[in-house]
Amino acid sequence: MNRSPALYVARFVFALAAVASDCAWAADAKIAAGASIYGNYCSNCHGDELRNTSGGATFDLTRLRPADHDRFVNSVLNGKTQMPPWRGVLDMEQIESIWSFIRATADR
Ligand code: HEC
Questions:
Q1: How far is the centre of ligand 1, averaged over its atoms, from the C-alpha of 45 (Å)?
Q2: For 90, which of 43, 63, 79, 94 could close a Cys bridge (C-beta 3.0–4.6 Å)?
Q3: What string of pLDDT tens digits covers the 108 residues of the chain?
């Protein structure tokens, strides 16, 4: 019956650390997936690695702020003037992973 509270604390901290590293791993995987989808579908117009070199012809995606998430999804699904719509081409998971990639790059 004489079990040390320190043991419980240690177990708790260990469990927390395990959950946190799992999340970090999942987030990294999502960003990597987004980077690759971006490279396949978007970089032609928006520039390699989000470096917009179009001289203003296309939108610089690193200018999107975290609060612009819904605008991002809407523009990607429905297109905008010269920008083709991606509805039916990319699914929501792919679009969200591109968003993660943009955030990871722009918020750095
Ligand atoms: C054929 C070239 C082209 C491709 C490919 C392209 N875009 Fe665009 N994109 C544009 C142009 C041009 C604009 C500027 C549209 C405007 O504001 O008139 C734009 C604008 C945007 C905007 C901003 C729209 C807004 O709300 O102002 C987002 C977000 C965007 N693109 C995301 C993407 C993503 C994500 C991909 C890849 C799935 C992609 N684009 C692929 C040409 C392209």
A1: 7
A2: 94
A3: 567 788 787 788 777 787 788 888 889 999 999 999 999 999 999 999 999 887 878 899 999 999 999 999 999 999 999 999 999 999 999 999 999 999 999 987
Token pair belonging to 2: 């004489």
CB-ligand 1 contact for 81 (6 Å cutoff): yes
Cβ neighbour number for residue 73 with a 10 Å cutoff? 15
Asked if residue 44 has its Cβ within 6 Å of ligand 1, the reply is yes
